[in-house]
Amino acid sequence: MEENLVTLTIDGVEVKTKKGTTILEAARQVGIDIPTLCFLKDINEMGDCRMCIVEVEGRRGFATSCIQTVEEGMVVHTHTPNVLEARHVILDLIISNHAKDCLTCTRSGNCELQTLATKFNVLDVEFPGEMTKHKIDNLSPSIVRDFNKCILCRRCVAACKNVQKIGAIDCINRGFESCISTVGDHSLNDVNCTNCGQCIQACPTGALHEKETIDDVWVKLKDPDTYVVVQTAPAARVALGEEFGMPIGTNVTGKMVTALKRLGFDKVFDTNTGADFTIMEEANEFVERFTQNGVLPMITSCSPGWVKYIEMNYPELLPHLSTCKSPHQMFGALVKTYFAQKEGIDPSKIYMVSVMPCIAKKFERQREEMKNDEGLWDVDNVITTRELSRMIKQANIEFEKLEDSKFDNPMGEATGAAAIFGTTGGVMEAALRTAQDTLTGQNLEKIDFEQVRGGDGIKRATVNIAGKDVKVVAASGLANAQKIMEEIKSGKADYQFVEIMACPGGCVMGGGQPIKSSKIRREVDVRKLRADALYSIDEKSTIRKSHENPILKQIYAEYLEKPGSHIAHKLLHTHYIKREKYNI
Amino acid sequence: MKTLEQIHEIRKEKRKELDLRVNTKADTREKHILVCHGTGCTSSKSPEILENFRKILEEKHIENVRVIMTGCFGLCAKGPIVIIRPEDTFYSNVTPEDCEEIIQTHIVEGKLVERLLCKDIDGSIVNSLDELNFYKKQKRIALKNCGVINPEEIDEYIAFDGYKALEKVLKEMTPDEVIETIKASGLRGRGGAGFPTGKKWEITKGYEAEQKYVVCNADEGDPGAFMDRSILEGDPHSVLESMMIAGYSIGANKGYIYIRAEYPIAVKRFQKAIDEAREYGILGKNIFGTNFEFDVEIRLGAGAFVCGEETALLESIEGKRGQPRVKPPYPAEHGLWGKPTLINNVETFANITRILLNGAEWYSSIGTEKSKGTKVFALGGNVNNIGLVEVPMGTTLREIVFDIGGGIPNNREFKAAQTGGPSGGCIPAEHLDTPIDYESLKAIGSMMGSGGLIIMDDTKCMVCLAKFYLEFTVSESCGKCTPCRIGTKRMLEILERLCSGEGSEFDIYRLEKLAANIQKASICGLGQSAPNPVISTLKYFREEFRQHAIQKECKTLECKALSKITINPEKCKGCGLCQKHCPVNAIQGEGRDKRVIDQDKCIKCGTCLTSCPFKAIGN
Amino acid sequence: MGEEKQKCCQCGCGGKDEFLEKLFKEYQPIKDNLIQILNEVQEHYGYVPMYAQKAISEFLNVPMAEIYGVVTFYSRFTLKPKGKYNIAVCLGTACYVKGSQKIMDRLKERLKIEPGETTPDGKFSIEETRCVGACGLAPVFTVNGEVYGKATVQKMDQVLDELSSKEE
After folding, report:
1. What average pLDDT does range A380-384 have in this prediction?
2. C65/A173 touch (CB, cutoff 8 Å), yes or no
3. C134 neighbourhood in chain B, CB within 8 Å
4. What is the pTM of this model?
5. Quick check: is A361 catalytic?
6. Residue with more model confidence, B252 or C7
7. How many CA atoms lie within 13 A of A82 on its CB side?
8. ipTM exceeds 0.90, yes or no
């Protein structure tokens, strides 16, 4: 091992680190935080912004610490007058071409550029000049692009093009005119964007953000004629606390429910209950396909970014896609039918709000298929975890001090299986729990499927159910999805069941979740912390199999008959269309 | 396919046949009419001239006379150029209509067409090429075959020792021996930075890999430079041969040449060279009966100066935006598709075969201590003999400008020369005696660059010159890194302010601060060198900058907002000529009145200045 | 896009573009060939139409944004057809020093367009070009590739007058 270690000095501190480590990383190991902007660990490592420059003794010019690696005996200085002056100039230049309207920016307070400006005490722009001007693109239901705030770090491009293998945005034009845009500068809405929002998560500034829709919620909440119902996704509850300064992965379900009630929602329900329905329907669909020679592998359909992706890129594989709606859509459909009937509320007066870790859900809820026979949407508004945190703050609620409360009934009970929907592998595991019981007709003890847990982008496993080997795979991130689709397309795949989530790591890392800076992302595994919180909810649940959820039993008995019934199909299932990638 | 023996035979026979090209006393009854087909001459109709010659010869049933297209002779200002061998008669500014007379008088009657003979700067009439001052101080190594052979015929190249170096290398030398020879020759990269070529080969050879590449950088982008184009147009095989030698030396079997699409003639001729070489079995497998195999493909540039930067060029070959990579790792380790790659520029390659045939000692005897061999320059701007010159390293700027270039036209003063284009710097009159080599140019704040050499007379404003280069850099910046993308734009804005009278002294300080930091912090050579024109003009013409910033004054007419043209009443004789020439009727006065310029109407075009016979108008 | 689509199916081939089809047979569908293909498309059509970018995107399996990024990076590629007369003024150093900027300024003034643009009637387009290799004739401009050397503002005026009247 020794020969793989390199010793160097950074700002007078001796560092022993592995060969191949970047100077930036080595510095961090001894508590030296070299500033960066374009760097996003494992995603964007190009050295473009030049903030991370350092001096290396004996080397001409500056070294790019975020990509250049350590060498034996290297002597690095991170804050010589030379370096500091250059960094000041670079920062000044970036700011000179940045819309400096911090007060009216959604990222104020969580902006990497602002942090640096504070650190370097930028009081005035020394080199002012022409600024590139661009129209704001807000036609997408999910994402707003404001290039005037872009600093051309290209982290979004890397997220879209490399991590997700979509490439809806790229760097266009040249030189000072360079900008990040779509083909022909069209709206994201008209190109191959899947609305996953990973670009937003990558953006260090306010150049990319969700299309906020909380204004409508405020209005409806104050409207006495509207019955406002809210449901919250599994992943939101383990991330919302971060927006109030709590550690990453804190489970704030109870406080969140209290806050929602204080906001004035008439009912606060749990999307997890919808997730249990999804499992019932999906497991049933799988068992049917599995036992009756249906189209296999069956692929999950609860990630709307993924659904849009397959519609655009692999329309020929659409028969593989489960016809199940996603949990919040199922839940919305039931609220406007079963619940409305039961409570005697006119469904047209119900305003259904979903709190989601996801911005593709904003697109999903507007799909034509998501309207019922009466012309009512299953869900009327989707807000993200971030938007909810803003509502709570604007309602002057001190979140940290709230007591816990429980979800409302009659649709407030959910299982541990539903909780893990929020992480990659979770839907698969939940479905397997129900499928194995269905196929064996027993109540099996073994319910943890460790093979499909963890942060890997692709997790393959063979599980034995009722004496039969079932090959499954869970993939997250659209680049990984693409790999699986190619396997299926070429006939190489022998899976029976495939789980896909558009966001790497699943919903816990969704485009609507609290945004973590590059620094945090390189220091902690955000995905793991949030996912662990979900697994912990599952573990602590008394009921951990969807089909054992008493509410489900009740609703199937009272209203839906059984999984896959005609009415279940009408309310809880959907269909897909071949979608053009480019409408230009 | 040709065997080695057949190639030897071609060389022997063809050389005999072409002796008249290089030997004025050649024993032959043949004559060769050489018509320059470089881009300059081509654009002034040399292909038509060639056709006319052929037609007339046919009509007149004249035999023993051949009309040959060649590469550039260098003296582009006098184009189209026609040379008749073996007597070496040099006709300049030939038009298609002149062909009849040349054939009748020169070929049939054996007399010179006096009116088409080239006049030297001193007015003397020159009969042959070698008599021209323009050629006397030159030494042609890289350009050896340019203007001598037909670049579209491989046999002509073979006749003049073509592919002899390759044969020698493959049959008699190990790769290490080749590299040692190149190292001993002292050849340094001609693309600008001057990295020792042999060392680069050695480093690239040192990296173990299943696949390696040789890349020829022919993305000549320096505005006003056309050395590489002329070599490719005039002698494409020499570059091809050298790429193969490089491939043998470093262990690569595949080469790419990246040529600007704006160079269609060069592209066509190089493709022809590749095709012919393949046909002869010189490119391909088992070259000259050895195990060595090599093939070359052309990749076209699409109009991005930054692609002349080696890593941007690689990105472009890979089909991407030409955005440079952070170095290290260098291409020698991590190049095209991540494989070890040797990149040299056209002129560098053009020297390789000559070194191997004549020996490292011969080559290193030319030039200065640290800069060996010759350098080709594209001489342009305010100089009489515009064209391509190749001089030994160490030749002074004065020799190039005044002896070879024939001085400054219109009796104006030399003000500065710019070497290295937008990456280089200007050299003022006080440094005219600097010997041109890598170190000396660097020491005075300029650089060798790829070979653009632009001369400026005293009518040129140096702030405008800096602005011109910054405009270029801004429009050619790839936009990848912050200092270059925004920093050069800010520098340009400051220069625009200075030129329009809106600048301040503080702007000069801003310029310097930006320049220093852009130099240090940019990713690639383009960004790092972008401030050079500003830094060097500031160094030598600071006063001119201060005049712009403080006095709001430009002594030349270039900055219109800062210049004012007036008529000196003491000198004006009231002739009215200026009035007659003024395009905007800004000059008032009647009869023999002394004329006055209406400053509101004046557009400062300067027409009156040149029209006044009494030098009464000034700025 | 609509208009462009029509253009490509004037031949009645049902929307298939024969040139592109032929082109795609000559090249391997790998990304490395993108610039080569774009060069051919530019050469053939005089610009890179959006429908061609779409077809290339499918052929090479490269997102359109990336292709567009490449097209807008290289100045040789244009997104709009050039005018019937494309006038390019060399702004290489040799020509600049000899006053080519004045000629460009005149051209912009007369045609009321900027470099890279085409007059509304489609007659003229102008562009800045780097060295065309005719430094001996500096300053130069070209009209559809034909070089006009030792140019002056007057000469530019003359050429414009001639070309305009030719059109009428």
Report:
1. 98
2. no
3. 39-40, 43-44, 76
4. 0.91
5. yes
6. B252
7. 16
8. yes
